[in-house]
Amino acid sequence: MSAEHESGPTAAKQEIAPAKGKLGVMVVGLGAVATTMIAGVEAVRRGLAKPIGSLTQMGTIRLGKRTENKVPYVKDFVPLANLNDLVFTGWDIFEDNVYESAAHAAVLDKETLLALKPYLETIKPLPAVFDQYYVKRLHGTHVKKGKNKRDLADQLIEDIRNFKKTVDRVVMIWCGSTEIFLEPTAVHESIETFEKGLETSDIGIAPSQIYAYAALKEGVPFANGAPNLTVDTKALIELSKQNAAPICGKDFKTGQTFMKTVLAPAFKARHLGVRGWFSTNILGNRDGEVLDDPQSFKTKEESKLGSLEYIFQPELYPDLYKDLYHKIRINYYPPRGDDKEAWDNIDIFGWLGYPMQIKVNFLCRDSILAAPIALDLVLFLDLAKRTPGLRSIGIQEWLSFYLKAPQTAAGLYPEHDLFIQSMKLKNTLRHIMGESLITHLGLEYYD
Length: 447
Ligand SMILES: NC(=O)c1ccc[n+]([C@@H]2O[C@H](COP(=O)([O-])OP(=O)(O)OC[C@H]3O[C@@H](n4cnc5c(N)ncnc54)[C@H](O)[C@@H]3O)[C@@H](O)[C@H]2O)c1
Prior knowledge:
This protein is of the alpha/beta class. The chain is built from 16 helices and eleven strands. The protein has two domains: 296 residues, Rossmann fold; 108 residues, Dihydrodipicolinate Reductase, domain 2. It is 38% helix and 16% strand. Helix 6 crosses helix 8 and helix 7 packs across helix 9. The longest helix has 21 residues. The site of nicotinamide-adenine-dinucleotide (NAD) has 36 residues, from helix 1, strand 2, strand 6, helix 11 and helix 14.
């Protein structure tokens, strides 16, 4: 029995470049999520608060057998950038500095913001690449002008190069608004067609794609907190691989979808049927206002709908999930601000088909949930960039844990189950560090 270990195969430890010097974080869109992340990092640096919700800062990872008691912190196990070495900059369509924008978003209380004001005021947005065609509810004033989309991409590349002069490494993260629903077209087929499309200002290329192109062109990893198409195209996946600039999926998995990808796997594991899942949300922040536009809502809806279909696999379990009716609603309700309320009504059925109901009422704080996810994505993408076995593979599927719409290699279905995602993430860390993978078999304890 001794060959059957709870821990699986071990690969050689990779030559990961150390996280030396400053990590520059370029944030697209300095709104509620971004300012909550930046202010939060500064509060943690000053010892004013704890980085709750961040796996990189609070998480541990088990190594070896259960009897060995080796459970280091993730941040002590893999070489991550230290929070003290993060330097933030960003773009926005409004001129407000991070203090003003955070005050407007009203996620953090006045007292906390005042304590951080001198630092937050120093972060002023660069003029953005923006076109109202792609986000109907916003009227940007702090915006770059260019003769075509190629010219705008070049201006972003210039911004990145200037920032690079002041730091040692750079990661870009989209915390900007949700754009209208776009699907890949001929322009997204290859790097060449995409670059031609920039010249002709092809309508299929939204601002988020121009930022992503600029990042990947410069070898800068790119994360996407919104459900926009962005890097989910052949052209930008290719560019990501070519320039060793890691990418991952899209749309921070924070509130309702987070709960869905915990509950749905539980029903499936017990073979309980689900007839209907009605999800509704009210929220009153700027994100809610943008999502009030049907075309932006469609982008969000597509991203939120995918998880149940993949988790339940109705083609394998027609008796349990074939007729599932899944509906999602988001309503803009200004009095709520960032304090979203989500309701789920789940109609399940059990033994002999007897029906039951589950109600979930999540009174959450959107940006409080999203900020640590944004931070972790930044730190892990920087790690991926320094890791030989990860930097040139393009999509980092192991970061699906954080995202509503995971991105995968062509032909693979996305894994949405939060606990499979968490295992995948930790096994990836063990793998690059040359530690045994954990399989949970464990027969050796009963020899
Ligand atoms: N908060 C959450 O729980 C959560 C979860 C998943 C996804 N998201 C997504 O994250 C994004 C940010 O959310 P938020 O609550 O911070 O929204 P927000 O409206 O407060 O912030 C978005 C910011 O992006 C700016 N912006 C828009 N287009 C831009 C462009 N082209 N260039 C530069 N800046 C631009 C806006 O001016 C605004 O300041 C949204 O797309 C949202 O759907 C949020």
